[in-house]
Design brief:
seven-stranded mixed β-sheet, NA-bd_OB-fold, tRNA-bd_dom, tRNA-binding, 25% helix, single chain, alpha+beta, 796 residues, phenylalanine-tRNA ligase activity, Phenylalanyl-tRNA Synthetase, Chain B, domain 3, Phenylalanyl-tRNA Synthetase, Chain B, domain 1, metal-binding, 6 domains, five-stranded antiparallel β-sheet
């Protein structure tokens, strides 16, 4: 937000110097980024008029001008391209010193005497424009000191605002904070209602529901659109970073900067029928004021007129920019002024989708006072009538019942204020701070009941009021004290593995830890098939960071892609963080994810290179599960796979029958969409089931030997090893110490669609030595269980 220092002081008179004002703004949270002094050394510079011009006899680009100074005429040699008879421009008289240190003395230029210098805005230090002389209005009083005429000296102050302080996107919004911090008072705004001089009106219909709960307008007939923007208004716009265009446009910009309410002026004669505020239609197009034509959809809102039918023609892009077809021009005679309240969620992200940025959209995205529209219309109407003439119609104010909520009172407890700040602020000071900020305060026995003005969206709870007291009272006034209290040592539960230990274990397996933002783009989630699963942000940093991630994998795979694009052929990354699901409040779930690509092992001479596959990543998973000592509670299934996982090279992971994650290669279509190869494998698990650990117990060394029996069975390719393990262990119970898979075969001698698995049964009894009959009986039981549950067939 950029504004004129003098403009601010007009609303809140203060004796504070410019440096004190800047320091105060920064101290109360309105960080000053730049202060550009304007017109500090303009003594001897006056308003002058060029009476006549002649070509310089010795130079083609110079002119000899007779200039009226209000105290006679002087001869000036000037090389500006716009120097001409009748031009009113600044003149630095002999003896003046300009801001750049240029001392004005009598001089001879190519043999012709010159007694002063006609100046550009850059030479005066009030604008970077050096293309020619600063052209002043023709009615500017000749001989008047330029500083007095332009309201100088002044300064252009630019502050950096946080998204929660949308109220400070106006001079008056800043004035309330300055008044509270410097002990001043904001002067009342002269926005008295304008009496209607005609019955001119337009029908207004709101068809966008709660997204546009208020729309205010007024018809003004008989305006003079050619009238020049007053100097004081034009200068304030310039010092706020805006170029004056024409009066009817400038007045809406001026009111926006002063009050914070974006407005738009339509040429009423170009509007047909009434005004309808509605969602845009799919495929609808609109030519904007900047000349571009945009294609819209139902996510946008438009202001439409009755051209060809009710709400048929869009004439403005709601909350962002007006349309070119109904803009005001020099021929405009009737104006329809519009000021509406668009809620932030209806505007957020729309400008970025169109690749544009507007002052109106910037404000509506952060929130504008819903009580401002009629005030802004009245204020702008008075300015137009005073400067451009005309006759105003009645104020048209349409509000949806129950959609504009009044601020609710908040209780601030005195004891709570003392506890949070660490000091007692006098009741009178607390009352003064809230009153200066424009809040209504009711003293109570236990504190205060405070009602924030409608412009302060950020005041929602008691802590917000405490923050207001702290920042205005001054953080530097709050004493620094070391917190007292004993530290409580909490024992880490032995039945849970620490997250740090998990990170160290993954690093020991050759993985690098990645840290990604918790925000991703909705477009990226759509590619993964996560539409509607993320938690959208109300005020995202950008369109690419608009949704809280429902999974770690999209961001982690983007990190892998980033590394591979920089010639990293073997990438192994992991991340331990939270994912988010919709809820009130959103549900946060700690998770761990792994992405890998490239060779299974780093390049070496000891063994040939081999591309990483599903079983390499599964081996690392097995190591993590065994680390917790409860791998028997985990099972792997081929069903229930998400859309982003390869259907033939993926698996669902479950713990005690409950899905806990997924493992496998990316789906080929997704890998292609992300510009990745087929060798990217991923793993994502809920963190808490992985960190659960079985407490170790001492066991006596077995006194009796173990017995091994090997069997080979033929099963369908669809039968997983976990099903075979469950069948065998369920049939043998405690006698089965270990089940080892030592061979897998498919091919000649085995039917298509089936596989041969050879496994070793390690049998042992803690109370006696197993006999051959015992071992043979166990083998028969295992084979019977496999035949019944897995349709297995024993191979000879």
């Amino acid at each position: 937000m950029k504004f004129s220092e003098n403009w601010l002081r007009q609303h809140v008179p203060t004796k504070a110097s410019r440096d004190e004002l800047s320091a105060t703004l920064t101290a109360i949270g309105l960080e000053v980024e730049d202060v550009a002094a304007l017109g500090d050394s303009l003594d001897g510079v006056v308003v002058a008029r060029i009476v006549s011009t002649q070509k310089h006899p010795e130079a083609d680009r110079l002119q000899v001008c007779e200039v009226e100074t209000g105290n006679g005429t002087v001869q000036i040699v000037c090389g500006a391209p716009n120097a001409r008879a009748g031009l009113v421009a600044p003149l630095a008289t002999v003896g003046a010193t300009l801001p750049g240190g240029i001392a004005i003395k009598p001089a001879k230029l190519r043999g012709v005497e010159s007694f002063g210098m006609l100046c550009s805005a850059k030479e005066l230090g009030i604008d970077p424009d050096a293309s020619g002389l600063l052209e002043l209005p023709t009615d500017a009083p000749v001989g008047t000191p330029l500083a007095a005429y332009l309201g100088l000296p002044d300064a252009s102050i630019e502050i950096k605002l946080t998204p929660n302080r949308a109220d400070c996107f106006s001079v008056r919004g800043i004035a309330f904070d300055v008044a509270a911090a410097l002990g001043g008072e904001v002067l009342p705004l002269d926005a008295a209602p304008v009496s209607a001089g005609s019955d001119a009106a337009m029908e207004i219909a709101l068809e966008a529901g709660p997204r546009v709960p208020r729309f205010t307008g007024r018809v003004i007939d008989g305006v003079d659109a050619r009238v020049a923007t007053p100097v004081w208004m034009a200068e304030r716009l310039r010092r706020s970073g805006l170029r004056p265009i024409s009066f009817l446009v400038d007045v809406t910009q001026y009111v926006m900067l002063e009050l914070g309410q974006p407005m738009h002026a339509f040429d009423k004669d170009k509007l047909e029928g009434g005004i309808v505020v509605r969602p845009a239609r799919a495929g609808e197009s609109l030519q904007l004021l900047d000349g571009r034509t945009v294609e819209l959809d139902g996510d946008f809102l438009v202001v439409a007129d009755g051209h060809g039918g009710r709400g048929e023609r869009a004439v403005a892009l709601g909350g962002i920019m007006g349309g070119s077809e109904t803009r005001v021009t020099d021929t405009t005679r009737s104006v329809f002024l519009e000021a509406a309240h668009w809620i932030p969620s209806a505007i957020i992200g729309r400008s970025r989708r169109l690749g544009m940025h507007t002052d109106a959209g910037h404000r509506f995205e952060r929130g504008v006072d819903p009580e401002l529209p009629p005030i802004a219309i009245e204020y702008a109407t008075r300015l137009i009538l005073d400067i451009a003439g005309g006759v105003a119609g009645p104020l048209l104010d349409v509000t949806l019942p129950g959609q504009v909520q009044a601020p609710q009172p908040i209780l601030l407890r005195r004891a709570r204020l003392v506890r949070v700040l660490g000091l007692a602020v006098a009741d009178a000071e607390v009352l003064r701070i809230f009153t200066a900020l424009g809040m209504k305060v009711e003293p109570l026995a236990e504190g205060w009941r405070v009602t924030a003005p409608s412009r302060r969206f950020d005041i929602e709870r008691e802590e917000d009021l405490i923050e207001e007291v702290a920042r205005i009272f001054g953080y530097d006034s709050i004493p620094t004290a070391t917190p007292a209290g004993a530290l409580v040592l909490v024992a880490e539960p032995e039945a849970r593995i620490g997250e740090l230990a998990l990170r160290e274990q993954l690093a020991a397996h050759g993985y690098f830890e990645a840290v990604n933002l918790s925000f991703v783009s909705a477009e990226l989630l759509a590619r993964w098939g996560f539409e509607g699963q993320g938690v959208p942000l109300a005020n995202p940093l950008s369109a690419d960071l608009a949704v809280m991630r429902p999974s770690l994998l999209p961001g982690l795979v983007e990190a892998l892609r980033h590394n591979r694009a920089r010639q990293q052929e073997r990438v192994r990354l992991f991340e331990v963080a939270r994912v988010f699901a919709a809820g009130n409040p959103p549900v946060e779930t700690p998770s761990v994810a792994i992405v890998v690509s490239g060779n299974a092992h780093a390049e070496q001479w000891g063994e040939p290179s081999r591309a990483l596959d599903f079983f390499d990543l599964k081996g690392d998973l097995d190591a993590l599960l065994a680390w917790g000592g409860e791998s028997h509670r985990w099972t792997i299934h081929a069903d229930g796979l998400p859309a982003w996982l390869h259907p033939g090279r993926g698996a669902r992971l479950a713990r005690d029958g409950q899905t806990a994650g997924w493992l496998g290669a990316l789906h080929p279509q997704l890998a292609k969409a992300l510009d990745l190869g087929p060798d990217v494998h991923v793993l994502e698990l809920a963190l808490e089931p992985l960190l659960a650990r079985r407490l170790p117990k001492a066991q006596p060394v077995a006194r009796f030997p173990s017995v091994r029996r090997d069997i080979a069975v033929e099963v369908s390719d669809e039968v997983t090893w976990s099903r075979i393990e469950q069948a065998v262990s369920g049939s043998l119970g405690e006698l089965l110490v270990e089940l080892r898979l030592f061979d897998r075969y498919s091919g000649k001698g085995v039917e298509v669609g089936r596989k041969s698995l050879a496994m070793g049964l390690i049998l042992q009894d803690a109370s006696r030595t197993l006999t051959d009959e015992d071992a043979d009986r166990c083998v028969r039981q295992a084979i019977a269980a496999l035949e019944q549950t897995c349709k297995a067939k024993l191979r000879g």
